[in-house]
Amino acid sequence: MINTATLAQVSKQQMAALLRFLAILGLALLVFAIVLLVFGKNPIEAYIAIFASTIGSSYGWSEVLVKVIPLVLCATAVLLPARIGLVNVGGEGQLYMGALLASWGALALSDVLPGFMGLPTIIILGFVGGGLWAAIPAVLRAMGWLNETISTLLLNYVAILWVDYFVFGPLRDPSSANFPQSEPFPDAFRLPFLGSTRIHFGLIIATVAVAALYFVLNRTRWGYEMRAIGGNPNASRRHGMPISRYIIVTMFIAGGLAGLAGMGETMAIQGRLRPGFSPDYGYIGFLISWLALHNPLGVVVMSFLLAIIALGGDTLQITQSMPFSSVNVLMSIILFIVLAKFSFGDIFKRFTKKEATS
Amino acid sequence: MTTSFIQGVLTGSIQSSTSVLYAALGEVIVERAGVINLGVEGSMLMGAVSGFMVTQQTGNAAFGIVAAALVAGLFNLILAFLVVTRKANQLASGLALMFCGLGLSALIGRPYVGQMINGLDPLPIPGLSQIPVLGPILFDHDILIYMMVPLALLVWFVLFNTRWGLSLRAVGEDPTVAFAAGLRPKLIQYQAIFIGGLFAGLGGAHLSLAYAQIWNEGMTSGRGFIAVALVIFASWHPLKVVGGALLFGGALAFQLQLQARGADISPFLLDMIPYLLTLGVLLFMRNRKNAMPEGLKAVFEGTS
């Protein structure tokens, strides 16, 4: 009896969350439609085009999944530290450093290592590259020297510049004169694709990452202790929890996850290391984790939404001759509505009242 | 290392640091009121695009400058509404503002890509600009560059020597206490964010009207974020911002000059210097009296 009652309660809560999500989305689409009208575009045509090029076809779906991979990974890189009260704005830089170390490994170690070692090598290096980059602000924070919000933000620029340095310098492919890029990676050191799609091994990595995070955060002592630290660091310290160790390990794993996102983009999609290859995945990941209230499953849902929007940018460019970044307006409208805590309360009250009386 | 090299570096550092300096001056005001705007990049782009459009339409860059400042100031009110009225998370709101500015400016400016304008031309100061070496470095610039130091002094004066400046800093330290003292924290924060937008708009205008004299999507290329870093580097002081901005610009100009001379130092390593220096300064100063406005600490700790 109790079980069914709580189940009903949970599903009602989830129902409300879903309705709220749809209401926000609907309102955002409405506002963006007005923006489109102002700029002389037909919003219905534009939305149909976005729908058709994303979730309207199996190819569209595969492209959505391709985008979801880096977004989910970058969002988990924010989610995990957020659980112990850390603000990681450095996903972008960690992504670049993961890509850099994995690329270096693919180019430098391919002569030494046998082919079957290729996949594990680039995955480990991608993780370690991002992880070590995130460990710098983590150590500074654990020592009580420097707040991680500022240091992760500053290190983003440095990381992007490191990639520029290597792509224009030591790793530059001498045969591509006009395009600064590395030599193509050997096949054994690239992530495999799924069939003929562009969906790559990163999908499995991202799925495992989300499942593992969900399990660790909700079902283990670590998850419990992290919640305690996030809730009250001082009390946790008095209870003898190793807060410094938690800060460093959490940030290392978080950076590693963002690093895997960068590794996936270079080792699968691009096939070479190129400068500035990330369209702000790290920053969008920050917003995703935040929109999802740092919940692993919410992160997956939000990543799908933002992946569709990001792909919509290409569609608007091709079909409506609008600049690619116009979709950023749609994305920011959604964010503004959520941030402003726009209340759909009245609608819900009526809805729940009806249910209560019936 | 000839005089022309030094002259090139110094002139270049002044020209390339102007937009960042304006944005950073605005951000000092905003952050002193206890709000961080991570979306300066977006405000600058809105300024750059509207300044360019108005200049192109009217043929007069003065109108362009005014429009740039006003549009960016109004654009910033979105942030003010979110973080002041609705108490939204400041970091997320700032990033959202950046994405909005990125998209909206691209959308508005689409027809203006590749257009030409009569931008801001250098106004050599008669007499002074004839001084050898120093003349071209200091006295052969456009109006926005001449205004840099006076405006920085003005911001410093207003923040530290006027009643409004005192109120603003009080709000930035602790809005509750400021409210109890009879101030209106929300109004002051709105004003600060609006003025911050005016400055970011001027920075954007310098980029599109003087430095590049074209409009291009995302043409700020990270300058807004540099401005945020610069404010921290300058420990929230408007006059130190000037020095910091020249250092940032100097690194850029230095590597451009080195490149022009075929020197074998990667420009990307030089570009890292300002960021590493900021980190170094923050680490070095950690034991001194912290200059960060108290109200910002909650944001950085993730509790606000």
Descriptive keywords:
A: 358 residues; mainly alpha; globular; disordered C terminus; B: 304 residues; 13 helices
In short, what is this structure?
The complex is a heterodimer of chains A (358) and B (304). Chain A has 358 residues and is mostly helical.
Topology:
The complex is a heterodimer of chains A (358) and B (304).
Chain A: H1 2-38, H2 43-53, H3 58-83, H4 91-109, H5 118-142, H6 148-168, H7 202-219, H8 221-231, H9 233-238, H10 243-270, H11 281-291, H12 296-319, H13 327-339, H14 345-357
Helix pairs in contact in A: 1-13, 2-12, 3-7, 3-10, 3-11, 3-12, 4-5, 4-6, 4-10, 4-11, 5-6, 5-10, 7-8, 7-10, 11-12, 12-13
Chain B: H1 3-32, H2 40-58, H3 61-85, H4 90-109, E1 123-124, H5 134-138, E2 140-141, H6 143-161, H7 163-173, H8 175-180, H9 185-211, H10 223-233, H11 238-260, H12 267-284, H13 294-300
Antiparallel strand pairs in B: 1-2
Helix pairs in contact in B: 1-6, 1-9, 1-10, 1-11, 2-3, 2-4, 2-9, 2-10, 3-4, 3-9, 6-7, 6-11, 7-9, 10-11, 10-12, 11-12
Structure write-up:
- The complex is a heterodimer of chains A (358) and B (304).
- Chain A is built from 14 helices and no strands.
- Chain A has 358 residues and is an all-alpha fold.
- Chain A has a domain at 68-297.
- In chain A, helix 4 (91-109) packs across helix 11 (281-291).
- The longest helix of chain A is centred in the N-terminal third of the chain and has 37 residues, at 2-38.
- Chain A is globular, with a radius of gyration of 22 Å.
- The two termini of chain A are 20 Å apart.
- Chain B has 304 residues and is mostly helical.
- Chain B has 13 helices and 2 strands.
- Chain B has helices at residues 3-32, 40-58, 61-85, 90-109, 134-138, 143-161, 163-173, 175-180, 185-211, 223-233, 238-260, 267-284, 294-300; strands at 123-124, 140-141.
- Classes of the chains: A mainly alpha (358), B mainly alpha (304).
- Chains A and B meet through helix 6, helix 11 and helix 13 of A and helix 3, helix 4, helix 10 and helix 12 of B.
